[in-house]
Amino acid sequence: MSFSIIGTGKSVPEHIVTNDMLSEFLDTSDEWIVERTGIKVRHVMTSETLLDLAAKASEDALKDAGITAKDVDMIICSTLQGDYVSPALSCLVAESIGCDTGFVFDMNMGCSGFIFALETADSFLECGRARRILIVCAEALSRHIDWNDRSTCVLFGDGAGAVVVEKSDSKVDFITKVNGSYEELYIPGEEGNNPYKSKCCDVRYLKMNGREIFKFAVSSIVSDAKELLDKNGMTTDDISFYILHQANLRIINSARQRLKQDEEKFPHNVETHGNTSSASIPMLLDDLNKSGKLKNGMTLMLSAFGAGLSRGACIIKWSK
Amino acid sequence: MVFEKVVELLSDYSDVAADSITEDSTFEDLGLDSLDTVELIMGIEDEFGVTIEMSNEFKTVGSVVKYIEDNME
Question: Which residue of chain B comes nearest to A215, CA vs CA?
Fold first, then answer.
């Protein structure tokens, strides 16, 4: 299994919501939010569609890779839900960016989506079905959170991140796991107006048990990293950057301390974006790539966790 | 013994001097927020080899110490 990320891209909505803006209609404060999450601002969709963000991030990644949409022969969209339940967001992205392939699909693995999409892409590259794949993670959490619930709505933001991957001789390795537990973190689906079905509940917003998820997140990051490193005969010190799903700065710091690593090896942008679900890792990768922090030959550990309960980690060599 | 070890683990999260922590001290008094208590519980699980469900709501140091003593092998 081997590939290289040859381009990264990112797009966020224009509207920025500060903690003070939230405290105008919620019983919360900047101090409380920063202390418990590290989050200062997040971008929230107003006039944009998710397609706008996904297409922009995709075009950004293609440009960074120095190729056009015609050079891509597969598109994977990771999203909780696109602008429509149907059609899939990937169909709209393909048309919008001018990609000819019909080999496109959406996948939903919550906040772990990028790792699962990357492993899926790797498999299609490995078997020769695709040579170059666009992965775009686009998330509109603002549609799924309860804006009256101060314990969850302060945590999330909207955004899209994309990467282009290409077959190469750069070795990669993955761990992906799910346990089927949903009570700790879920978003109920729409029931429609089926006259034969009794209504079970009215709540259609994201529900999360923060303490349970914090523990799941930290223990998953640490144990997955150790398992993957052991499997590859490596140690925690062999990793240049640990690029974690950006859910909460406290989770990132707790995992870092348990892995006994320096702060600079755990880059983060959660403070300016909040938790953007599966988009968070490709968005952070784009920040690091565009700011010149990623050097050829560096070994990166990507790690994510989320609804499912799902978790995934990946070791890749940066060889753009 | 368990109490002393818990007080030691607490030093990562609380500025309160170890010798002024008692079994009746609440985590709130010691300045721990809800995520600090989760981290403390994870540290306790590693230290004592016990599993603690997050549904357990511990208010005082003594309640955690009792839980550990009751569940240690």
Answer: B38
The answer to whether B18 faces chain A, any CB pair under 8 Å, is no
Considering only CA atoms, which of A278, A81, A306 is closest in space to residue A178? A306
* Residues found in chain A: 320
- Active-site residue numbers of A? 111, 245, 275
- The residue in chain A having the minimum alpha-carbon distance to the alpha carbon of residue B57 is A211
Within an 8 Å CB–CB cutoff, is residue A150 touching chain B? no
Cβ <8 Å between B38 and A211: yes
- The whole-number pLDDT of residue A201 equals 66
Q: What is the pLDDT of residues A142-151, one digit of tens each?
A: 999 999 999 9
- Same topology, domains A2-169 and A174-317? Answer is yes
CATH number for A2-169: choose from 3.40.47.10, 3.40.50.720, 3.30.300.30, 3.40.50.2300. Answer: 3.40.47.10
Name the packing angle between helices B2-10 and B61-71 (round to 10°).
130
The pLDDT tens digits for A215-274 are 999 999 999 999 999 999 999 999 999 999 999 999 999 999 999 999 999 999 999 999
Domain of residue B25, residue span:
2-71
Contacts of A209 in chain B (CB under 8 A): 54
* CATH classification at residue B28: 1.10.1200.10
Distances, alpha carbon A167 to alpha carbons A34, A43, A125, in Å: 41, 34, 6
The mean predicted confidence, pLDDT, of chain A is 95
Within 10 Å of residue A9's Cβ, how many Cβ atoms? 27
Residue A249 bridge partners (DSSP) = none
Is B41 in the A-facing interface, judged by CB distances under 8 Å? yes
Q: Looking at beta carbons, which residues of chain B come within 8 Å of A218?
A: 39, 42
Range A174-317 classified under CATH 3.40.47.10: yes
**Are the C-beta atoms of A202 and A146 separated by less than 8 Å?**
no
Cβ-Cβ contacts under 8 Å, B38 against chain A: 211, 214-215
pLDDT band at A43 (very low <50, low <70, confident <90, very high): very high
